[in-house]
Amino acid sequence: MSLIDKISEEIKVAMKARNALRLEALRSVKKELIEAKTSGKSGGEISQDDELKLLQRMVKQRKDSANIYSAQGRADLYDKEVAEAEIISEFLPEQISPEELEKVVEEIIKEVGAESVKDMGKVMGVATKKLAGKADGKDVSNTVKRLLAGA
Questions:
Q1: H or E element: which one contains 92?
Q2: What backbone phi and psi angles, to 5 degrees, belong to 55?
Q3: pTM over cut 0.85
Q4: Domain that holds residue 23
Q5: d(Cα 65, Cα 71) in Å, to the nearest integer?
Q6: What are 22-65's pLDDT values in tens digits?
Q7: Which residues contact 63 (CB under 8 A, 6 or more apart)?
Q8: Number of domains the chain is built from
Q9: Lower CB density within 10 Å: C or N end of the chain?
């Protein structure tokens, strides 16, 4: 079952349950997926990697918005954005722990033979592909920097 089919099924469940917040979040995901599929670049198809990137971007947007609302003291909007981010995150692969992330990055550093922060590009290229959807890019970057600085 494709991601868009899963989303459509979840939309039906949310409608039956009269869960407006979940319904709104799922509809926004479906809209983004359809727009990505119908854009001139995709040729009518969207890869799983692109689906993951789209979902990650949507979660990040909501978390960023939530942080802004929190700083402005808008608890009502903050709660909504956080809840939507959690709903969208359900369709992402399970995130790895910081300890697991560190182990994977250490393996990649050994694999590519990186010795200093100058080699960060090599490490990030491999890490981004290997950890797609499993870890936030900012966390990966920070871990790579920290480990290479100590190497």
A1: none
A2: -65, -40
A3: no
A4: 3-89
A5: 10
A6: 999 999 999 999 998 888 676 778 888 888 889 989 999 999 99
A7: 81, 82, 85
A8: 2
A9: N
